[in-house]
Sequence to fold (281 residues):
Amino acid sequence: MTAPFGRRLCEVSENRASDGYRVFSLLDRDGPEPLPGQFYMLAVEQRWEERGGRPFLPRAISVADSGPAASGVRLDFLVEGVGPGTDRLCALDPGERVWVNGPLGNAFREPREVNPGAAGAILVGGGIGIAPLALLRRGFAERGVPLRVLLGFRNREHSGGLELFCGAGAELCPEVRLASEDGHVGHQGHVTDLLAAMLAGDDAESAVVYSCGPPAMLEAVRILCAERGVPSELALESPMACGFGACFGCAVPKPEGGYLRLCVDGPVIAGENLAAVPVHA
Ligand SMILES: Cc1cc2nc3c(=O)[nH]c(=O)nc-3n(C[C@H](O)[C@H](O)[C@H](O)COP(=O)(O)OP(=O)(O)OC[C@H]3O[C@@H](n4cnc5c(N)ncnc54)[C@H](O)[C@@H]3O)c2cc1C
Ligand code: FES
Fold:
């Protein structure tokens, strides 16, 4: 999916709390519908400045859901306030406007594109990294792809967005299983405990694993999949200044030498193309 040239202003239609995270929606009058795994570079029109008044760069945010709206495309984003940019996005009011560039980057592939023998998909998300998996899950469910979803959170404060997986107020879909390190919901421990048990099951090797989350979790997912011979598609993060290949701020090393620019060659990278999931300071 190619982004329209240049950036455009989009109006905020909603911003709501979702446990410790926020979900806000933009009306994109011009843009195409994004694909799951793609992201947007976002900068708020007003007060997008650090305390010293220095303007700062747009922030990369994955699209968590989207759909047709009366006059364009609705884009939903799941955000955790971890610094000046995401704090400002969390505080958006309906009617405010956001500079948008996107959809950018590549998308998750269908299971049969990754592995012609694949019978289904296993989605593994951690923390705010569950965002791109919500749109992926919806598409797979609509196309009848057999799927299982494993979501993990550190604690109640660092969790949210579950309603994006099955609708507000609804029970979680039966294919969703949860883990939390503090035990407030689901299995007490890491989401990779659930994945390890699932991959030890009979038919797991015919699945493709799709994952997004903190680097340590993604690395554990990559290793588990490599050990079992299960293909994986991992949505990675790195610091991004431009989002379209110009600044090289997002470069990560390739195992065979050279670099990938995560904004154009990713953010979704096949696990077998990584020596290890990069960790950025
Ligand atoms: C492709 C992509 C998709 C993303 N999707 C989402 C999303 O859906 N929701 C969301 O809330 N965030 C998402 N992020 C992360 C978000 O863009 C960054 O955390 C952003 O830098 C936050 O900006 P800030 O000004 O709030 O905090 P900053 O001041 O930039 O950073 C706050 C803290 O996070 C650390 N940090 C910042 N960026 C990174 C990074 N890329 N990797 C590791 N540590 C980092 C900093 O070192 C600092 O400790 C995504 C990032 C990428 C690259
Ligand atoms: S963010 Fe600029 S090259 Fe990737």
